[in-house]
Design goal:
The radius of gyration is 30 Å and the shape is rod-shaped. By secondary structure, it is mostly helical. It has one domain. The longest helix is centred in the C-terminal third of the chain and has 54 residues, at 118-171. The protein starts with a helix and ends in an 8-residue tail after the last helix. Helices cover 64% and strands 0% of the residues.
Length: 186
């Protein structure tokens, strides 16, 4: 008889473990969302007038992606649409953003040293900012996924624990009597 009662109790324990795991996952998702939101808000970033979401504080998926898009647009305008990899390290006399990587062809400063390509440096900075904002948006999205998954685990845990308790009621007279049922083993 003890072995018969072991399985339903094990099912209840598994259900409780699923509930706890679900609640921990929900808590983790909420913490991550709060942390990323605070990090973004702490930067005091506001989207410019020409962004898809103008004059908004960057603290959500939509505003982070809007800011990333406008940074990339502005950098593209400055660099003539060239990416970082398409530009040379040094500026050229003509001012062409493509520049050159050959120090002999580069524009020279007063000391005779090649001048860095400002367009390339701008594109590098823009790429870093766009990546950072995009990762923040992705982290917020993942936190929402963690919250949803945690809620699903919690619900599943309650269902599994309830099934285990129902199985226990089918074979245990004390549990069955609480609900006005007749145990199978009686």
């Amino acid at each position: 008889m003890k072995n018969i009662k072991l399985f339903p109790r094990l099912v209840v324990v598994i259900g409780v473990i699923l509930v706890i795991a679900g609640l921990v996952t929900v808590g983790s998702g909420i913490y991550i969302r709060s942390f990323i939101g605070d990090q973004l808000a702490g930067q005091n970033i506001v989207t410019p007038d020409d962004a898809s979401i103008p004059n908004a504080e960057v603290n959500s998926i939509a505003t982070a992606l809007s800011m990333a898009d406008i940074i990339q647009e502005h950098a593209g305008n400055f660099t003539g649409g060239l990416t970082y990899a398409e530009m040379g390290r040094f500026a050229v006399e003509s001012g062409d953003p493509a520049g050159t990587s050959n120090p002999e062809e580069a524009l020279k400063d007063a000391n005779g040293n090649p001048v860095a390509n400002a367009a390339r440096n701008t594109q590098l900075t823009a790429s870093g900012l766009v990546t950072s904002l995009s990762l923040s948006a992705m982290a917020i999205g993942m936190s929402y996924g963690a919250i949803a998954l945690g809620l699903a685990f919690t619900l599943l845990g309650f269902v599994v624990a309830g099934l285990g308790y129902a199985l226990l009621g089918l074979i245990t007279p004390e549990v069955a009597e609480r609900y006005g049922l007749h145990p199978v083993t009686a």
